[in-house]
Design a protein that fits this description.
Number of strands: 11
Structural class: alpha/beta
Strand order of the largest sheet: 3-4-5-7-6-8-9-10-11
Number of helices: 12
Strand content: 15-25%
Largest sheet: 9 strands, mixed
Order of helices and strands: EEEHHHEEEEHEHEHHHHHEHEH
Helix content: 25-40%
Length: 428
């Protein structure tokens, strides 16, 4: 593999001005990339050199807001069997002092209505050496736009230090399209954004002479990303048989949106109370339901929906503090808390339509992870998809156990994936 020929300093050159969503973005490209076709390729607009160290891992965001450092510290103050600091030490031992290069850029995809749009994402690669395969990562739920992959080196980027090209889409609603409502958990548009990012990464990696050694790919995602990853696997197998999936790794995902909603309503509790309005708004935008939000949200939530969620100025932790309660009934109307209410009929139909459950399960090898302690994405999701996978006699490995709350389970999932990749012979 020839050494990368990109000059990192003073090499950004203005090439064009494109319309991106409702805003305009000044497009720049790296030296040697000016002839890439923006209709076909990922076009980089910035480059970041990072050293994957303990400090870098500690600063990475996790689902629900906050950093790895904050989640581990909070967990270690509790009387549990989960050792947050130990998980971090294990992660750091994998990648300490290894260098990666990350490119933020845009590519052509589609919005929730099927209209062409340029969305953004990040490609991270090892600074030196060969690239084994592409790892196509679907990111978890975020609130603040700064948490979008194109805007920060994500925790999944550590797999670039393990010899992979880590490809991450922002999804519509984040990064360069942050002025738009994110169609949360709408499987078709988010899967489309991820798949288009994969195809756009190929000519870019070829251009910079960092084409992976192998054509087959890994899929990975946790939380929202777990559900998106399963949708991506379904779509690849149904419509893109040219793509060979070596392994799909999905953790803590809301594969059954209806069951997730039911469980949170039944418990009248969730660690991330903003997730329910995000689900309702996502189904509304993604399926043209034209909902009257006053039928579903109490007045204070209706009044602050755009500021708290759609402004992308707050993390999910910030939004929880603004809401001031983790009780679902503190933000939802009695109709929204009653699954038999006529107001819920078309919403439930949309949730069913966007769930992984009920569709043909992927035939590729699957690794499914879930913590029994998860109060954000209830375990019923893992149980329901396990039943579907077994009914269809799929090639699946399960890892369900008491792995702590949602954030800490995130760390354990990535560590388990690293161990699995080593077993597959992809990490030496």
């Amino acid at each position: 593999m020839r050494k990368i020929s990109i000059i990192m300093c003073a090499a950004l050159t203005l090439v064009a001005l494109y319309s991106c969503s409702h805003s305009e973005t000044i497009w720049v490209t790296i030296e040697d990339c000016s002839d890439l076709d923006p209709a076909e390729s990922f076009i980089p607009y910035s480059v970041n050199n990072s050293v994957m160290s303990q400090e870098a891992i500690m600063k990475c965001s996790l689902p629900g807001g906050g950093t790895v450092e904050e989640a581990a510290r909070d967990e270690d103050t509790k009387t549990t069997s989960t050792n947050g600091a130990g998980l971090i030490r294990a992660m750091v031992s994998m990648i300490d002092s290894k260098e990666i290069i990350s490119y933020s850029g845009c590519y052509k995809s589609e919005d929730e209505d099927g209209n062409p749009i340029r969305v953004s994402g990040r490609i991270s690669i090892p600074a030196k050496g060969r690239i084994s395969r592409i790892m196509l990562v679907s990111h978890y739920t975020i609130g603040h736009n700064s948490e979008a992959p194109s805007n920060e080196v994500t925790i999944e980027s550590m797999f670039a230090a393990r010899g992979f090209a880590v490809v991450q889409a922002d999804y519509v609603g984040y990064g360069q399209t942050s002025d738009r409502v994110h169609p949360y958990l709408c499987d078709k548009v988010t899967a489309r954004n991820v798949i288009d990012m994969y195809y756009a990464s190929l000519p870019f990696l070829k251009k910079i002479r960092r084409t992976p050694d192998h054509d087959d790919i890994f899929l990975m995602g946790f939380s929202q990303g777990g559900a998106v990853t399963m949708s991506v696997a379904q779509e690849f197998e149904a419509s893109h048989p040219d793509v060979k999936i070596r392994l799909t790794m999905a953790g803590g995902g809301p594969y059954d949106i209806c069951a997730t909603y039911d469980k949170l309503i039944e418990n009248d509790f969730t660690d991330y109370p903003c997730a329910i309005p995000m689900i309702i708004q996502g189904m509304d935008y993604g399926n043209d339901l034209n909902l009257d939000y006053s039928d579903y949200f109490l007045p204070r939530m209706v009044e602050n929906l755009d500021e708290w969620i759609n402004s992308k100025r707050y993390t999910m932790g910030d939004i929880t503090q603004l809401i001031g309660s983790k009780k679902v009934s503190s933000i939802m109307t009695p109709d929204a808390m009653d699954k038999t209410s006529p107001k819920m009929t078309k919403l439930y139909n949309a949730m069913l339509d966007n769930s992984v459950i009920g569709k043909m399960m992927p035939r590729c090898p699957i690794y499914l992870f879930h913590s029994l302690d998860d109060t954000v994405v209830p375990y019923v999701n893992a149980y329901n998809i396990m039943e579907m996978l077994e009914m269809q006699d799929c090639n699946v490995m399960y890892n369900f156990g008491h792995y702590g709350p949602h954030q800490i389970a995130t760390l354990r999932f990535f560590l388990s994936c690293d161990n699995l990749l080593r077993d597959f012979g992809d990490i030496q």
